[in-house]
Every structure is written in C-alpha cells, then in structure tokens.
Amino acid sequence: MLLAVKDVQKVSNMEMNMLHEEEIEIINAFHDAAVAKDIEKVDEIFKAVEFDVEDHFSTEEQMMEESGFFAAGIHKAEHDTMRKKIKNLKENWDRDKDPKAIQHFLEDEFKHWIVLHVARWDSETAMALGDSM
Ligand SMILES: [Fe+2]
Ligand SMILES: [Fe+2]
User: Fold this and answer.
1) N or C: which end of the chain has fewer CB within 10 A?
2) Which ligand is nearest to the CA of 20?
3) How many CB atoms lie within 10 A of CB 42?
4) Cα(125) to centroid of ligand 1, in Å?
5) pLDDT tens track, the chain, 133 positions
6) Residue 45 belongs to domain spanning
C-alpha cells in the first residue's frame, strides 16, 4: 500500500475529503499493479487514474471559482504541474510499458506531492469554502 487514508490530512470540506479518499484507493490499486508488474492491470487502472485525478482537480477548481478563493490561481497551477507529470508518465508508459517507472513516480513523487498539496492548498481552500457545498 502506497498511502493510508490517515496519511492525507482531513480538510474542513467533506466533498474534498471524499475526493481524496477515492483517489487514495485508486492510487493504491495502481501502485499494487505496478509492483506486481501486471501490464494489463496497469493499463486498465491508468484510465481510472487519469479520470479520477481530473475529476479531483476540476471539482476543486470549480469550487474555488464559485467561492472566489483568493489563491485559486496558485492552487490551480499546482494541479496543472501534476496534470503535466501524469500526462508525461502516460506517454512514457505507452511507449515503454515499464511498471518500475510507474512505481518510482508514485513512491518518489506523487505520494509526497499529494500529502503536501492537501496540507498546504486544499486545507486552506477548504477553510475558505467551509462546508457549505
Ligand atoms: Fe485535493
Ligand atoms: Fe487541490
């Protein structure tokens, strides 16, 4: 398991917490498939990861837009950086089918990114939004 639910901080907005829990579940399944070097499974879960990450980011961006959160631009820029990294990872995967590259990305980059991103940007955004959604 790459991430336990408790590794990612709870924020003061329930919808965001739900998005994070869903993402942890999918990312763990993705990591399991990469560690098991199950090419077919990685292929299959990669589609779910792309869909889920986009749903997570765009839902938060819409919430920020609706509430006029002052740092929406910086928060979105952090999402865009991760969007690019995942797009890049997918291009490499389609070319090389190397599960080790997925495993390294998840362990060395994504895990730390999500923990820090939620602690820094999502928690502050959630505080500004409250739980009115
Ligand atoms: Fe988030
Ligand atoms: Fe975020």
Assistant:
1) N
2) 1
3) 23
4) 9
5) 999 999 999 999 999 999 999 999 999 999 999 999 999 999 999 999 999 999 999 999 999 999 999 999 999 999 999 999 999 999 999 999 999 999 999 999 999 999 999 999 999 999 998 765 4
6) 5-129
pLDDT for the residue numbered 109: 98
Tokens representing 102 are 């997925």
Q: Compute the distance from residue 117 Cα to the ligand 2 centre, in Å.
A: 6
What separation in Å is there between the alpha carbon of 101 and the centre of ligand 1? 24
Distance 131 CA to ligand 2 centre (A): 16
Tell me the CA–centroid distance for residue 122 and ligand 1, in Å.
5
Residue located via tokens 């998005």 = 19
Q: How far is the CA of 100 from the centre of ligand 2 (A)?
A: 27
* Number of domains within the chain: 1
Closest CA to 73 of 61, 89, 87, 91: 61
What CATH number has the domain bearing residue 96?
1.20.120.50
